[in-house]
Every structure is written in structure tokens, then in C-alpha cells.
Amino acid sequence: MKTETRILLVDDNLAVLEVTSRLLWSKGYEVSTAPTGLEGLRLTRQWLPDLVLLDVQLPDLDGFEVCRQIKSDPALLDVFVILLSGEATSASEKAGGLDTGADEYLTKPIDTQELMARIRTAARLRHTTAALRASEQHYRRLVEILPDAIGLLDAQGRLAAVNSQAVSMLGYAEAGLLLGKRAVELAPPEEQERLGAGLALALRTGVLQNVEYTLLRKDGRCFPAEISAAVSSEGHGQPSELVLVVRDITERKRTEEELRRLPRRIIEAQETERQRVARELHDGVNQIIASAKMRLLKVEDDIAAIDPAAPRMLARCGELLVQALEENRRIAHGLRPSDLDELGLAEACRNLCKELEARSDLQVSCHITEPAKRLSPTVELNLFRIIQETLNNAEQHAQATVVSLQMAIQDGSLELSVRDNGRGFDLKSARAFQDKRRGIGLTNVRERAAALGGVCELNSAPNQGTVIHVRVPV
Question: Is 457 left (phi over 0), alpha (psi -120 to 50) or beta?
């Protein structure tokens, strides 16, 4: 790591070389000398000085040509060049020298103090420029290794720079094909106005954070993207530039969709299993119980002659078998209500409310406006399960005396609400979910509503009852 400024002196006057090099050494600079242009070029490429003091008049290559070759070499970008001449001192000659890329042009003779001041100034500028270039290269490398697309928008909303990820993400062969394009052109026509408004907002406020847009690849395919933007320069009357960070969220959207479908698949699997168990109960267990009941009836008369108490025992067994049949039917009906398939959602819900009122102390009111035509079996089944779950919650947990069910179609959505006058609970308190069964029930309601593309809203307060409102598009 260099600790002092390196200066190369290129001059065919050996006396000037000797005097100037001694002066610079005395000021703490590291110095090397060259008497010709070609030797100066060789030392510049080999030694990599910070600063070259270059005489214009040289025996082989003139200083202009040496300067031009130094400045055209990418490996020598950080080398500062000061041209000096005692003969080429006209304004046009100075302009020609500066046009070669020289950083300064001095005329001889020059006062020693002025020369040293100029060298100190040039050294400071060189170190500052080199630091800025190193910083720029550092951040450019960072931008290139980022997984996201990065772009710079000029004041007219056109792409001034992009990284390789942007080129790849948008499906272009090279960055040059993107430069100069308006950012809104990278979105489909229906999205361009919204994207333009978002970028304008970023210019006004200074930032745009994680907003989702649809963008367009070169081949015409659309993909979802998340865009963030920040103003990169502003002030002094200059228009602002925007740095864009664009993330392709196709995979994230696919994962989110899979997660949204998961509850639906679980619910469908649950319903399939319920239907299977209900069928087994009806076709298997019920048939066995019925067969046993008929066999008891056959032996009831014959066994009376053997044991007078036997008929009463058989009659009791028959009653238990009847109860078992009824209980089996009730369980099967709960697993897969035949009313729903045969009579439709409205009538099945009315029967459900009647059964609840018959077996409990609840006063249940049911107000259902039937749709013009039946809903799909999936929608009907999920809505029935939602109503079944909310009524069970009211019966088992709410300590209510009155429950009301309302259902109607309004503005293309089915509006369902179940209200009770029970104890309620504090929605903001974690204690509201201490009852695990109620928590699971409400989760099932939300998942079924989401599976139908709808929403579930819960309103409750201590001693003010509970309202569960479900809205589902139909």
C-alpha cells in the first residue's frame, strides 16, 4: 500500500530533471525520471505513478501523444498528467494539450512555489478521483452480484443504466437494448398508468417501497414484480434520478397460491372422508343393527315360554338397538347431511336451526332469502359447514339464550351473519382464544370462507354477544 505520492518527470533537459527531482524528493515525494516520451510511457505502465509532469517538446514522441496514450489506457485511468512547455504556450496549443486529456497545462518558466502548489493540488485531486472511482467500481460490483434487477432512471423516466440481472429478467440480449427505454414501456398497457403514477410518487416523496406491479418481458410474457425506488440525486435545480430495485416474485406468488389452496384441499379431503364414514355407518353399521333387531323380534315369542322375564329383556335390547340406529343416523347426518343434497342449502339450514332449538334451551331465528338458482355443491357444503360451526359455538361456548341466522345475496355476494346474545369476549386479549375448541372452530370458519374466495369478520365484546359475518362471492 502506497504511503506517499509517486511522481514521474519526463523531460529531455537533464538539468531540469535533476533540479526538479531533487526538489520533489525534498518535499517527501517518490520520484522517477525519463528523458524521452517512449521511456516515459514505459515507466508509466510499469511503475504506475500518481502524477506525470510531462514536457511537451520531446525528442521522439511529443508530450501530446504521450498524454493521449496514457489517457487511452484503461489501466492508467488514475494517472494525472500535467503538461509543461516553454514554447507551446499559445491559447490554441494549450487547448490542444488539454484536449488530449491532460489534467493541467503549465508554461515555463514557472515559479517553484507555484509549481509545488500545483503539484499538491493535482495530487489531492488525483487521490480524490481515484477514491471515487474505486468506490464506484465497488458499488458497481455489488450491484452486479445482487440477485435483483437494478436500474437508473433519468429525469425523463428513461433507463440510463441497468445491471445484468435486469437484462436477464426482462429477456433482453444486452443492456444497450434497454437503455433509453421509458420505464412504463416495460409494463403491459393496462399497467402503465399505475406504474407511471408510482414512479412520479417516488420522485415527489423520495421513496417507493415494495409495490407490486406486472411487468413485460421482451417476448411479451408478463410476470409479477415487486418494485422499490429511491431518489439518487436532487438539488441545485437539477432534475432527480431514480434508482429502481425490481424483484421477480413469480415463485413467491406461486407459493402463496399453493398456500391459499392448501386449506381448500384439506377441507375437500375432510369432506371426502366424512362422506366415506357416513356411507359406512349407513350401509354397514346400520344394516347390522337393523338385522340384529329383526332377529330379536323373531325369538321374542318363542323365548317367553322358557323364561317369563326374557321378553322384557329382549324388548329393552330392542329399544337400545333403536336408539343406536337413531344415534348412528344422527352421526351420519352430521357427517354428510342428506338435507343439503336433497333439499338445498336454505332448507338444510332451517332444519339445522330447528334441531338446535329442539335439543337446547336456545331461541333460534332463521331468516334466509333463497337464491334464484342453487349454488354449486362445493359452495353449499362449505357454507353449511360454516353455519354448523358457528351455531355449535353459540350453543357450547357463548352461554347465549338467543341466536339469529341471516343469509341473503346482495350485489353479487352471499352475506351470512350469525349473531348471539352471549357472554362475548375481548378480541384484543389473548384470553379470548384460551378455549382451544372455539379457536379451532373460528379458524375453520375463516379457512372455509377463504377457500370460497370470501372473508370472515368477527365482532365481539364482553357481555355484548358475538357476531360472525361471512361474505362470499357467488
Answer: beta
In a domain, 433, yes or no: yes
Domain co-membership, 304 together with 389: no
**pLDDT tens sequence across 360-411:** 889 999 999 888 888 888 888 889 889 988 998 888 888 899 999 999 998 8
Q: Note down the domain range covering 203.
A: 146-248
| Residue 128 and residue 20 in one domain | yes
Q: Are residues 268 and 315 in the same domain?
A: yes
User: What value does the mean pLDDT take over residues 286-291?
Assistant: 78
C-alpha cell at 21: 527531482
pLDDT on residue 430: 41
Phi, psi for residue 206 in degrees, rounded to 5: 95, -10
Query: Is the predicted pLDDT of residue 237 greater than 60, yes or no?
Result: no
Contacts with 59 (C-beta within 8 Å, 6 or more apart), sequence order: 12, 36, 37
User: Do 159 and 118 sit in the same domain of this protein?
Assistant: no
